[in-house]
Write a structure and sequence with these properties.
The protein is of the alpha/beta class. It contains eight helices and six strands; from the N terminus they run H-H-H-E-H-E-H-E-H-E-H-E-E-H. Helix 2 (29-40) runs parallel beside helix 5.
Length: 280
Amino acid sequence: MVDPSVMPRWLRIVLTGWCFFLFFFGSPVIPLVIFPWLRLTSKGEAQYKERCTLLLHRANWFFTRLMAFYGLIDAPSRVVLPEGVDPRRPYVLVCNHPSLIDVVLSLGWFEGLTCVTKGSWKKSLALGMLLRSTNYLPGPTGDGEDVHGAIVAHIRKGHPLLVFPEGTRSLARHLHRFRRGAVEAAFEAGVPIVPMYLDVTEPFLMKGVPFWKAPPRAPIYRPEFFDVVDPRTETRDPKQVNQDLQDCYRARFAKTVAARVRASEPVHREHPSNSPHSAL
């Protein structure tokens, strides 16, 4: 493992670029080379999609472990869902979106977890084939699709779903307004809402920030869970639940920002001549 404390910045940039080269140019190899073999050896469409989804789960996990091995990030290898949440049953994982790799980290941590993909990716030869072969939910293409209905149906089929209620990556100093579609879908489907806050010590791969503007230190990713919301016993309506979650995330994010500011401040060391023992 590369020691991030002694890694020069230019090397961090090169390794980050190398990892993303592997990700974006290696991803098409999976559907073109491996998926055909999985189809031939699967007993039906459902098993085929389950196996493809599992393969991508492991590929996402491998990618993030590669970044950790290179010293580009510090993130746990495995994360366990809160007590009472059955990983074999559907749930909605709500998360803030501080960086580009949040999706990859989350999909690598939780087996069976799915997400909503960009609708435009359907038209891509390799990516379209890759996504159609999994249990991931295709996003809207602008043709008037019933997105809410599709999400509810997807969850009711038994698929856990990752949702970023901000809709895009967070800003450096504050979070975007939370959309309540994920909460409403979880209430309608009757599945638990699992709020996960992803704390990142360094601004990294934010929206509009290219990978070559790497931070001086490896960002530390640490997931934290807030109280699980069970729609079957919840007395609040979806609108209030969404507002309370937004307030909770914003309060926690304020602590993240404050910690980043403190970490960036220069350390003032006392000069030996000013020490009371220097005259002795």
